[in-house]
Amino acid sequence: MIAVIAGTLVAIVLNPQAPAGIATPQFLPWVRSVIFVAFAIGIYANLLSLGLSGWIRSRSLGAVTSTAALISAIIVWTFVRWR
Q: Any idea what DSSP says for residue 42?
């Protein structure tokens, strides 16, 4: 939800009719940072829930889902980095 709000702020700021006080060069990097952090937290929260969900059913399924979540987190970390 935070990523959507921050994305909406970027759309508002990039609108040619945006007020002069809003469309500042200092504002855009901050909003992009908020979008990235919110997106990353959402991805990792989903992976965490995937990793923990198998433990409810059985120990072996918990090990499988935790391994899948860990491998997925490594892949996400590899491709989605702070730049």
A: H
